[in-house]
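[Discussion] Sanity-checking designs against the backbone

I'm trying to build intuition for which residues belong where. Below is a C-alpha cell string of 706 positions. I'd appreciate it if someone posts a full sequence so I can compare it with mine line by line.
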C-alpha cells in the first residue's frame, strides 16, 4: 500500500511548496481538505492563498520564515475558506523546509482537526488575547529599543522586557571579539557570574558559541536536553537552577554579531509562537546594539576630533581671563563647522609702539554645513588663519587671505562631487593686551558684544564684508574699540542666538539678559550659563551624549581684561564709525545709543537724543565727503547722569544755523539741538570738526547712577 493511501485513510494530505517557482503541489487528500476536488493538483501560490483565512496566512508566513531561519518544523493551525468566504474546516499544517541555496521547498502534511472549544480559542496561534498581547508587547519592545542611545541603555531595556506568558528571569548578551566569545551584559545573575563565560573560544561546546558559529537558534526545553547536547559546559549552567534556555543569534545585515540567551526557571516548550517572539526580540535587540555601537564609535571619534581641532585656551596670559565652549549639533557625527581659536601673535610690542603684554588674536567662525566635510574644511581654514596671523598681517589682510584660500579649495573640480562650494562666516579680533584696543574684521558673522563694568551690555556694530570663500577679492574693513579693565567681550556663532525658535534679534535679547544678570567675575560659569540657557544643564560638556533637540552647532568665546587693582568706574561709552558708503548704519547708530541708555529714566530725553544723533550723522554724510565718527558717553555728575554725544568728521566747513521752512528737507540739525539739548556746540579740530550735545538726566531716588 502506498504512503499516500495510508495517509488518506487517516484524513492526512501531502503538499509541497516550491518557494522559487511559487508552485504548490497537493495530493488528492490535501486538495480535498482545501475544498477542491479530491485529485492531485498543482496550483499557484495565489490560488492556494485564497483558500486560507487571511489572518491565518499572515501567521503561517511568519512561522515559515522562522522555521527556515532555524531549520526547524513549521507548525500552525489554519482555517479553510470556501468561495463565499465561509470557514468550512480547520486543518493543522506541519512542514519541514528543505533549503537549496537562497531558495527552499516546504514539504509537509495537512490534517483536519476538531474546532476549538470557546474557552481555549483565545490561546491558539490563530486569534485571541495571546496574539493581541504579543503584538502589543512587540510594539512596546520595538519602541523602547529604538529609543535606547547606548549599549547600557539597550541592555537595561532588554532586562525590563516582560514577554507575554513566558518571561525569562535570566538574560545574557554575548558578543564576538576575534575568535572568542565575550559577555556584553547580563541580567538576573550576581556580579562575577559571567567570569567563566568571558573570553570563551568560539570552538567551545557551549550553546552561545555554537549559535555564533552556525547562525541558528538553539532551544533547550529541559535540563536533560541541555546535558545531552552540551555535556562539557552543562556544569556551568547547572548551578543557576534554570529549567529551560533559548539561545538566539543576533544578526545584523546578514552577519551574526553575537547571541542572546533567555533562561527560565519554569519549563518552556518553545512553541512556534514562543520562538517567533524570541526571534523577533533578538532581531530588534541586534539592531539596537548595532545602532548603539555606531553611535558610541561616532561619539568617540567626534570627541577626538573636538580635542584635536579646538585649542586649549591659556593659561599664563597676564591681565586677561578667557573661557570658551563648543557644543556640536545632536545626532550622527557630533562635530561640525563651528570653531574658535586664540592665537599668540608674534613679538611683544603693541601696535601703539610700546613694549608690554603683547597681542593675541581671537577667532570664531562657522563653515557652512554640519557634516564631515564641514569639519574638514573648518580644520583647514583654522590652520590657514593661524598661519596668516602668525605672519603678522593686519585683521583685514588675514580675512582677505583666508577668503581666497577657502575659495581656492572649495571651487575646484571636486566641489560638485562634495555638494558644491562652501562658505564660512568669521570674526577676527586682534587684542592689544596693554591698551585694551581691539581691531575687528568681520566676514558675515554676528557682531561682538561687550559687558561694561556697570552691567550694561552693548552689541558692537562692526564694518564687515562677505562670508569667506564667496568672492576671492572681497575687502574686510577694520573696526576699532577699546576694552576697559573689568569689561567682558563675547563673540559667538549664530547657533547660540537662533536655537529654540529665535531669530537673531530675539536670540540676542535672551543672551543680553544673561550677560547683564551675571557679575562678570567667573567667565567659566558665565560660559556654562549661556549654553545651558539654550540646551539645559549639562549640555556644555563635550564628553558625553548630547541633547537631540540641538538645532545648530554652538561656539562661544569670552574674554575679560582683569584690572590690576580695584575697578574705578569709568563713564559708560560707545564709539562707532559710519562710512560714506554705509548710510544704512545710521539705524545701527540709533540702536547703539538706545542700548547705551537702556536704563535712562526719561523716555522723552531718550527719543530726543536718538533724533539728534540721526540728524548729526546724516548731515556729515550729506554735506561732507568723509566718514562720521560717533562717540557717546554717560557719566555721573554730583546729582545726576549726563549724556554727551559727539559726531566728528574731517571737513573744515562749519555748520550754520538756518531757519528752514515747513517743507524744507534739511537745515534742522542745529535748530533741534538748540530746542532739545541742555548744551551743544561745534568745535574745530585742526583737521575737521566735532558737533556735540549734552543731556542731563533728572536725579532719581536710587542716586545719580541708579
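Best answer:
Here's mine. Compare freely.
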Amino acid at each position: 500500500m502506498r504512503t499516500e493511501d495510508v495517509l488518506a485513510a487517516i484524513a492526512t494530505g501531502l503538499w509541497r511548496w516550491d518557494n522559487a517557482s511559487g508552485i504548490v503541489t497537493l495530493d488528492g487528500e490535501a486538495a480535498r481538505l482545501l475544498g477542491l476536488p479530491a485529485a492531485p493538483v498543482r496550483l499557484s501560490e495565489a490560488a492556494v492563498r485564497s483558500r486560507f483565512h487571511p489572518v491565518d496566512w499572515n501567521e503561517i508566513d511568519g512561522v515559515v520564515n522562522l522555521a527556515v531561519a532555524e531549520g526547524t518544523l513549521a507548525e500552525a493551525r489554519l482555517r479553510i475558506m470556501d468561495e463565499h468566504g465561509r470557514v468550512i474546516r480547520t486543518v493543522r499544517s506541519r512542514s519541514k523546509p528543505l533549503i537549496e541555496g537562497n531558495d527552499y521547498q516546504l514539504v509537509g502534511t495537512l490534517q483536519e482537526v476538531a474546532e476549538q472549544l470557546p474557552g481555549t480559542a483565545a490561546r491558539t496561534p490563530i486569534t485571541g488575547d495571546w496574539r493581541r498581547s504579543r503584538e502589543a508587547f512587540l510594539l512596546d519592545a520595538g519602541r523602547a529599543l529604538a529609543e535606547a542611545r547606548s549599549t547600557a541603555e539597550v541592555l537595561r531595556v532588554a532586562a525590563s522586557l516582560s514577554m507575554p506568558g513566558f518571561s525569562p528571569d535570566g538574560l545574557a548578551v554575548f558578543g564576538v571579539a576575534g575568535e572568542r566569545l565575550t559577555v556584553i551584559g547580563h541580567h538576573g545573575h550576581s556580579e562575577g557570574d559571567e567570569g567563566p563565560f568571558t573570553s570563551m573560544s568560539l570552538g567551545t561546546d557551549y550553546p552561545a558559541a555554537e549559535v555564533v558559529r552556525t547562525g541558528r537558534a538553539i532551544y533547550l526545553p529541559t535540563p536533560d536536553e541541555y546535558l545531552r547536547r552540551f555535556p562539557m559546559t552543562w556544569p556551568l549552567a547547572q548551578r543557576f537552577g534554570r529549567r529551560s534556555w533559548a539561545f538566539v543569534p543576533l544578526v545584523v545585515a546578514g552577519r551574526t554579531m553575537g547571541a542572546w540567551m533567555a533562561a527560565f526557571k519554569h519549563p518552556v516548550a518553545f512553541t512556534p509562537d514562543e520562538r517567533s517572539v524570541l526571534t523577533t526580540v533578538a532581531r530588534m535587540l541586534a539592531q539596537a546594539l548595532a545602532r548603539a555601537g555606531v553611535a558610541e564609535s561616532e561619539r568617540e571619534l567626534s570627541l577626538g576630533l573636538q580635542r584635536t581641532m579646538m585649542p586649549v585656551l591659556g593659561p599664563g596670559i597676564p591681565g586677561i581671563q578667557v573661557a570658551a565652549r563648543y557644543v556640536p549639533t545632536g545626532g550622527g557625527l557630533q562635530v561640525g563647522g563651528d570653531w574658535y581659536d586664540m592665537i599668540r601673535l608674534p613679538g611683544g610690542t603693541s601696535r601703539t609702539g610700546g613694549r608690554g603684554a603683547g597681542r593675541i588674536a581671537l577667532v570664531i567662525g562657522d563653515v557652512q554645513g554640519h557634516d564631515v566635510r564641514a569639519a574638514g574644511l573648518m580644520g583647514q581654514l583654522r590652520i590657514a588663519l593661524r598661519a596668516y596671523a602668525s605672519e603678522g598681517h593686519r585683521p583685514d589682510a588675514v580675512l582677505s587671505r583666508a577668503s581666497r584660500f577657502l575659495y581656492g579649495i572649495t571651487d575646484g573640480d571636486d566641489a560638485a562631487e562634495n555638494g558644491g562650494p562652501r562658505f564660512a562666516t568669521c570674526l577676527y579680533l586682534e587684542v592689544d593686551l596693554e591698551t585694551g584696543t581691539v581691531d575687528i574684521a568681520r566676514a558675515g558673522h554676528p557682531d561682538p558684544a561687550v559687558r561694561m563694568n556697570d552691567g550694561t551690555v552693548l552689541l558692537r556694530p562692526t564694518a564687515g564684508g562677505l562670508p569667506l570663500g564667496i568672492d576671492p577679492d572681497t575687502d574686510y574693513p577694520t573696526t576699532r574699540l577699546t576694552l576697559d579693565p573689568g569689561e567682558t567681550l563675547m563673540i559667538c556663532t549664530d547657533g547660540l542666538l537662533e536655537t529654540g525658535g529665535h531669530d537673531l534679534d530675539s536670540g540676542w535679547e535672551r543672551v543680553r539678559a544673561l550677560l547683564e544678570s551675571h557679575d562678570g567675575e567667573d567667565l567659566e560659569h558665565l560660559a556654562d550659563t549661556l549654553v545651558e540657557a539654550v540646551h539645559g544643564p549639562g549640555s556644555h560638556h563635550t564628553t558625553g551624549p548630547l541633547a537631540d533637540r540641538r538645532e545648530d552647532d554652538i561656539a562661544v568665546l569670552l574674554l575679560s581684561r582683569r584690572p590690576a587693582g580695584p575697578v574705578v568706574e569709568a563713564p559708560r561709552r560707545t564709539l562707532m564709525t559710519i562710512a560714506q558708503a554705509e548710510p544704512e548704519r545710521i539705524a545701527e547708530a540709533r540702536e547703539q545709543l538706545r542700548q547705551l541708555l537702556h536704563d535712562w529714566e526719561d523716555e522723552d530725553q531718550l527719543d530726543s537724543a536718538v533724533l539728534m544723533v540721526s540728524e548729526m550723522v546724516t548731515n556729515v554724510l550729506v554735506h561732507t565727503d568723509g566718514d562720521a565718527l560717533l562717540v557717546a558717553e554717560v557719566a555721573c555728575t554730583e546729582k545726576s547722569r549726563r549724556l554727551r554725544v559727539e559726531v566728528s568728521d574731517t571737513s573744515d566747513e562749519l555748520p550754520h544755523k538756518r531757519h528752514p521752512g515747513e517743507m524744507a528737507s534739511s537745515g534742522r540739525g542745529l535748530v533741534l539741538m538748540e530746542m532739545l539739548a541742555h548744551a551743544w556746540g561745534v568745535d574745530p579740530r585742526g583737521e575737521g570738526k566735532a558737533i556735540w550735545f549734552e543731556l542731563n538726566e533728572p536725579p532719581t531716588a536710587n542716586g545719580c547712577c541708579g
